[in-house]
Amino acid sequence: MDTRERLVKAAADLLIEGGKEAVSTRAVAAAAGVQAPTLYRLFGDKDGLLDAVAGFGFSDYLASKHAMGVGGDPVDDLRGGWDLHIGFGLARPAFYLLMYGEPRRRAARLEADAMLREIISRIAAAGRLTVPVEQAAQFVHAAGMGVVLALLATPEEDRDLELITFSREQVIRAITTDAAPNGPTDIPSRAIALRVALEEDPPLMLSPAERVLLAEWLDRVAK
């Protein structure tokens, strides 16, 4: 490993052993066998180091998300993404809390959030989303994070893993409809689908101001 990799690995080990509080720049530099100025030169500050640690911890998770690909049913893809998210949180709690237990949105989290929105946008494009994309993404994220944190706060032998599937299906029921894939069956779902279509392929005949106005109208109809 080069110096940067040694520092990230040392910080990751400290994170796993003692949580974020254990990841001081002094402790990381000592564990990696380098001087503190080297750490600051490579990462700028502690937040820069933690960004790198989060990316290191989430690399397998993000690779698995990418490997899922695009299935024939975007709602089933959402189920798969949910299960992957919960499984990662339970398997690597220190990294999960670093990513989701604080306001700062680290680069790896932004990538994961973008993947979630992409799946939900495909549900909307199929005419099966009953709330706006952003609202649905926030709902799925909040519910998934709540399940992980609730299970992590429970002794492993007392965890009810049925909560994972139960919560997942409740969330899906709240934001989707069973409408046939050939088109939405109600006005809000049609508005949501059109909103996604306009973002992906905006009509050339509309000015930027007209597009903003149309998006506002569609958002109102979707609520």
Describe this structure in words.
- With 223 residues, the protein is an all-alpha fold.
- The chain folds into two domains: 1-44, Homeodomain-like (Arc Repressor Mutant, subunit A, Orthogonal Bundle); 57-222, Tetracycline Repressor, domain 2.
- Helices cover 73% and strands 0% of the residues.
- It contains eleven helices and no strands.
- The longest helix is centred in the first third of the chain and has 23 residues, at 46-68.
- The mean pLDDT is 86.
Q: Tell me the radius of gyration.
A: 21 Å
Assigned CATH class of the largest domain = Mainly Alpha
Give the strand content: under 5%
Quantity of strands, as a count: 0
Please, what is the average pLDDT? 86
Helix-residue proportion:
over 70%
Total domains: 2
Low-confidence stretches: none
Topology:
Layout lengths: L2 H16 L6 H8 L3 H8 L2 H23 L5 H18 L1 H8 L6 H19 L7 H20 L9 H14 L11 H14 L7 H15 L1
Helix pairs in contact: 1-2, 1-4, 3-4, 4-5, 4-6, 4-7, 5-6, 5-7, 5-8, 5-9, 7-8, 7-10, 8-9, 10-11
How would you briefly describe this protein structure?
The protein has helices spanning 3-18, 25-32, 36-43, 46-68, 74-91, 93-100, 107-125, 133-152, 162-175, 187-200, 208-222. It is an all-alpha fold and 223 residues long.
Feature tags:
DNA-binding, 223 residues, 11 helices, globular
